[in-house]
Amino acid sequence: MVKIVIATGKRKTSIARAVIKPGEGRVWINNIPLEIYPIEMAREKIAEPLNLIGNLAKQIDIKINVRGGGVMSQADACRIAIARGLVEYFSEHRNELLQIFKEYDRHMLSGDPRQTEPEKWGRYSARRRWQKSYR
Hints:
- The protein is α+β, with helices and mostly antiparallel strands.
- It has one domain: 2-Layer Sandwich (Ribosomal Protein S5, domain 2), CATH 3.30.230.
- The chain contains four helices and five strands.
- A five-stranded mixed beta sheet has the order 1-2-5-3-4.
- Strand 1 and strand 2 (14-22) form a beta hairpin.
């Protein structure tokens, strides 16, 4: 029987779904291999959980489908989905992986609740007001 794990990650308005299967250590984001993913910073961020677990990453293939938000928001969502999926997939190493991820960055498993503040009426942005020149 083949073990398959589906994990999700969210950041701002991005939602990532990761499917983890046995394989050779390959990762695809929206059907693009991670090695040729166009944005370098995002590529590094997505690969962080895989770099932290070492040789275990060579045993699995990961396909990620991510929608919504911006480039780095999508990268963070992918990172969260991968980290959660790895903890679930390698359940025999669960405590070690949890400790590694929490020490490195606690948002890798829990997510980051910050959202953009909504724009208020009569203004350019959430906080900015019109300038006054008569004082």
